[in-house]
């Protein structure tokens, strides 16, 4: 009998017309069907492979769930206790929702972060390109929360890659009013110019990564990683770097799950962070029939179900909202959990590349 990974089964059945892309088989950030038995819609051999793949997925998920449960006992709202883990970037971010800050600048940005800190957020995601690093520093100071209790992320923009990377990072530190960040990322794998040179982009990535390695050696960046890298970009970096990236920040939501990229990250021990976890509120995700049904069962919002779905995969969601009410709702996901069957059913919502709501980094050479 053939043994196919779950994404392969979905691709095969979609290609054969058995399942339409985006059809469940069972059952704002910046930057529905009834349950169906697999054997009733798939040929027997494929159904058997699907059942086998689901079994393996459930076993893996059970192991991850046990680890997440262990970490949750060490975490309380507003008090993120240190946790000893193989990946340093996980210590303050395990089982927590991060606050995305893209889209807001000036006083609106400061107020958003200040309210988020009051609610209990301790992971703050910014970037030089967001033009709000100074506002975030002001919000942290205004909150009175010690800097060491906040997990601060910033990123190097593609215009600053290469020889501009080192001074650009120092400028970010100055705006953030700190001598270190907890996580420094390369924002994109290269320029998005219409005419690109693969060799030039690869050179800029390598040069920029050396700057990140040096920043970590100098303890100006506690962890280093990448954002918006494809499997191609990541494999290239892993083949040449001295220090491996510890984090991948990429778009992930139920309609766009990127299973192959996420599997590579897990194989290489990269912590995964998901931006746009609610698909910018687009694609009808928040009105999805399956998700609304699960939300009703737990008396939760669809957003909370999606964020919990990510957390139970050991993925840290970076959720943006300018509304204190929504920020509080997004953060309050630690006192319920989804069943393995519900996790499986949500996995069948994946629509593939057409459901990406952000810029497609595959366009970068």
From TrEMBL:
InterPro entries, per the entry: AKR, NAD(P)_OxRdtase_dom_sf, NADP_OxRdtase_dom
Coiled coil start-end: none
Record Pfam families: Aldo_ket_red
Keywords: NADP, Oxidoreductase
Keyword Heme: no
Residues annotated as domain NADP-dependent oxidoreductase: 116-347
Membership in a protein family: Belongs to the aldo/keto reductase family.
Protein name: 11-endoperoxide prostaglandin H2 reductase (Prostaglandin F2-alpha synthase)
Taxonomy of the source species: Eukaryota, Sar, Alveolata, Dinophyceae, Suessiales
């Amino acid at each position: 009998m053939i043994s196919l990974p779950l994404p392969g089964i979905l691709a095969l059945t979609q290609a054969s017309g058995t399942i339409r892309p985006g059809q469940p088989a069972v059952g704002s950030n910046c930057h529905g069907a009834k349950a169906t038995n697999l054997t009733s819609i798939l040929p027997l051999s494929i159904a058997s492979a699907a059942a086998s793949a689901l079994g393996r997925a459930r076993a893996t998920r059970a192991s991850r769930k046990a680890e997440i449960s262990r970490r949750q006992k060490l975490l309380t709202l507003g008090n993120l206790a240190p946790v000893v883990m193989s990946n340093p970037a996980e210590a303050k971010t395990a089982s927590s929702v991060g606050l995305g800050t893209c889209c807001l600048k000036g006083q609106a940005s400061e107020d958003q972060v200040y309210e988020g800190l009051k609610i209990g957020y301790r992971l703050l995601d910014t970037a030089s390109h967001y033009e709000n690093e100074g506002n975030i520093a002001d919000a942290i100071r205004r909150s009175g929360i010690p800097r060491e209790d906040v997990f601060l992320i910033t990123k190097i923009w593609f215009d600053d890659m290469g020889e501009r990377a080192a001074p650009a990072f120092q400028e970010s530190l100055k705006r953030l009013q700190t001598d270190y960040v907890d996580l420094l990322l390369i924002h994109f794998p290269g320029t998005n110019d219409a005419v690109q040179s693969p060799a030039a982009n690869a050179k800029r990535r390598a040069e920029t990564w050396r700057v990140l390695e040096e920043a970590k050696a100098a303890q100006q960046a506690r962890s280093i990683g990448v954002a918006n890298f494809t499997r191609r970009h990541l494999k290239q970096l892993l083949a040449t770097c001295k220090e491996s990236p510890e984090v991948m920040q990429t778009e992930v939501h139920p309609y766009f799950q990127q299973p192959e990229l996420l599997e590579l990250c897990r194989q290489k021990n990269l912590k995964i962070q998901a931006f746009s976890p609610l698909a910018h509120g687009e694609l009808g995700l928040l009105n999805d029939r399956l998700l609304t049904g699960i939300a009703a069962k737990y008396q939760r919002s669809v957003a909370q179900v999606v964020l919990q779905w990510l957390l139970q995969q050991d993925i840290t969601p970076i959720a943006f909202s300018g509304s204190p009410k929504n920020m509080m709702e997004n953060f309050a996901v630690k006192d319920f959990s989804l069943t393995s069957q519900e996790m499986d059913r949500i996995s069948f919502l994946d629509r593939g590349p057409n459901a990406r709501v952000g810029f497609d980094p595959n366009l970068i050479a």
